[in-house]
Amino acid sequence: MPPWGRLLAHAVIWGLGLAYLVPLIVVVLNSLRTAQEIAQTSMIGWPEFWAFGNYAEAWSKFCVAQTCTGLQPYMWNSAAVTIPATIISTLLGAIAGYAISLWRFRGDTWIFGLVTLGIFLPQQMRLIPWTIVLRDIGLMNTLAGLVMIHTIQGMSFTTLFCRNYYVSIPQDLMKAARIDGAGFFRTFLRIVLPLSPPILIVTVIWQFTHIWNEFLYGVTFTTGSQQPVTAALIGLNATIADVPQHGVQSAAVVIAALPTLLVYLFGGKYFLRGLTAGAVK
Amino acid sequence: MIWGPLLIAAAHIVLFAAWTIWMSFTSSTLMPVSDFVGLRNYNLVLGTRNWKIAFDNLLLFSSSFVVLTMLTGLVLAILLDQRIRGENVLRSIFLYPMAVSFVVTGVVWSWLLNPGMGIQKLVNDLGWTGFRFDWLIDREMAIWTIVIAGVWQASGFAMALILAGLRSVEADLIKAAQIDGAGPVRMYVRVILPTLWPILVAVLVILLQMAITTFDLVRALTGGGPGIATQLPALVVYDFMFQRGQLGRGAAAAVLMLLTLLLVLVPHAVWKYAQRRRAAHA
Q1: Cβ of A111 under 8 Å from any chain B Cβ?
Q2: Domain presence at residue B62
Q3: ipTM surpassing 0.85, yes or no?
Q4: What CATH number corresponds to the domain at position B115?
């Protein structure tokens, strides 16, 4: 390619890169501007005076619907759902993937096929059954209910990821373990788990991002103080209409997005691997 | 110990799907009942203006979202493939929207596209007072705001997969084409893109799946409005089930959504199966 062509390619791609950052830059700058300043100009602008107080207010004072507790309790709710569901679904997926790929049992390919069908079944097809199940076992409007749902549904992905990774572990290794008299869990702990960190990181990042960002179940199965942060954000955006508080609201949006953005910043490579693994199937 | 959870994870998919399908043939409203009313719910749902608008919107949204996302992803990937300085940083920039919830991005886009305080206001304040960019409150154009936000969010994903595909094209193939005197454009169109088909199809299917199940983004960006101008099937399902307390009709709408999805997934599965068999025979 001629030098001017390379220059042009650089200009275009860096220009596009900057454009992709605009929404993030705008919301971060807004989170540091006062409501008056935004109202006088627009949502897009440089802070005249850095209103760091927006973050404190968004975190602990701001009103969502009629409760003025800030985003804090909803962030804890999201954490209380996301962290256990991520850990449990990843562990179960690892053991299930190991059982399917290395231990083998009658009907293993069937079970695997069924579990992975879950990747395609839209949430809308499960809303009514989950509603009834949650009500009957008394977990409606609880964080435990959401943990259960995300664990069970998450297994579709975690089992797929782990099974596809474990398939490449040589069967000889398994035979050797069996000859040594190691059982199902001993073999898993001694041989399979030490080989697993790469896929476990991918799986944990995938689950964490998806569960944290999930909205439909959160808004359907929980209300008020039990809601995860994605559901609360929508409420917050709706309440604001009468009294504009866009600086604080922007801070709230940044806070809600921060956990997954941080995970992406530090584990982007693994996030991408999850996306690709999910895509190739 | 693993059999319990594994069995639940596998069985719930079939059972829940069957349950919802069964529900769609009953007259359930607020409470599930088990009488059989045939296709009544389907006829009712298909007859509502809400569903018709939602389905028309879905056709427009999914086709434009998928085409524009793939084109953008392809352009980004090809540009990034030119030994660009800072490629890693750029790749992370294009992909970061995928790590953020659609609720967050929907809210941010709703501010940017709000004519009273977003891009239009900024340009007006800069002196171009006649500038209009009010698609968000324009019934005809509002659906395009969802396309804009969706393409911005998903094109980095398309880019990442296509770029991985570009990088895995065999060097020999490229060398042979170079020896034949192929220029860069010819190289991409004739040599590289044809080998990318499987990846492009995979991306296409995932994007269609995303489009058909779109819910969060619309809820956060337009709320389905103005009026019901940006209604999509997933919102109709939710509306029937939890706002109007019409479980039977909501279930029917969910099944219609699933059928739309199967229209994409089944041909893809058949195609993949045929491809695998061909590969096995070759």
Answers
A1: yes
A2: yes
A3: yes
A4: 1.10.3720.10
